[in-house]
Amino acid sequence: MADSLKGSVFIQTANDDKANNQQNLFSIIISDCIGSRVFFLFDKRIYSTQLYNWMPQKKFQEVHPLITSTDKDANYILYTYTITKEKDTLYIGGNQSVIDKKNRKNIKKCSSNLIIFKEVQADHITNFNNLDKDKHSFKLLVTGPDSLSFQQKIIDHDLWLNGKKGMRLDNLGKISNKVCYNGNLIEADLSSTIIDSSGFNSSLLNNVEFSNSTFTNVNFFNSHLDSTNFNKAILKNCMFLGSDLRGAIFTNTKFKNVDFSCANMAGVIFEPDSLPNIQGIASSYNLDSITYRTDPGALIKLKEKLKTAGFTDAHRKVTAAIQRKKHTLTSSTATKFIDYLLFDFTSSYGLNPLRPLILLLILIYVFYKTYLFLFFIDKLKIHIKHAGTSGEMITDKIHPGRLLFLSIITSFAIGFGPYNINDWAKKLLAEDYILQPWGYTRILIGIQNLISLYLFSLTILLLFGDPFSFW
Description:
This protein is an alpha/beta fold. 27% of the residues lie in helices and 20% in strands. The radius of gyration is 36 Å and the shape is elongated.
């Protein structure tokens, strides 16, 4: 190193990053150093004339005696920058941040870049990416043209969210060819924004205003879009793979080749003008809680498309979602309770076709215990009439050992003509008998029989039909 640079702060970037093409590998803050100079040194074997678009200025010169390297073939280009602010932020990108296919073959032979701070004390330099690691914005990375400007706007927005000096992100006009990783854009106003060939990966986009915006070739991979508003937005060739869309609003939205694969659709308000990719939305989560405000038309079309495409499970979920919302719009509390008891509690509006049968089996046990309790307090009003030893019919008090069987045949007193489950069950016994209940015991048996008839019939309808699709 030249004598003029002795005592300077020297930063050697990782040599393994020499082929990196990111716009922002790391950032550095320099405080209280106005007038000091920063030297960037780049291996000429990568680029002989072309500079990097993340540089703050375009002034450079070749240097030989300034610094030497253990790599004898290294020939550095020197780039200088003068600090003009009390607190200046430098964004450092990769060697390959300018795509140049001709030079890719030289990458393995080159060295990573170097940074020297002249007349700057080490305690005046801070690695921006290590500041306040709990804050989301400092894990942020934006790539693409003019990425540093966009990244700074997101950082300012994060500061605004935390009540510090900053500015809310809004009125961007157009975002093109950028990818944002780990961005915090919560409550940003990006209405009427044109977003093209870009991505928001693992970013926070909760409560963002995207109304009247146009999206083309945009990827929302693994991002949070809780309660985000896409009212009157246009989405073309977009993907929400693995994103959390709880409570997002898609009203009067135009979809064209939009993929919701593995997205969380819980509470999404779904009233678009057109439908997204059917195969993708069929694999999304919580379709049974997707909803609408006033018009179920889009959801009705969606469930029909899912059924036609053979996505039976997704079709049932959307059907259940439509029914739930329809019944919540009912003004009568009594009607809401009855609808819930008959349809949601029993089968989740068809999502659980075997649940009525399970409830029926539980009901058999509950009524058996009830009959047994009444027997032991001598309040069970039922006799059994059967053949005596001499063949005549005699009437006895029912034995407690037969009360479980009583509950079973009462629940399955179902059939048509010769096809009667009750008659088949009685043939399991060695003798014929007639039960003779009276009083409130007769009413109790009648109640059990009616409930069981409903649950059994509902099971058959759900297994072999689709009753809720017609309501």
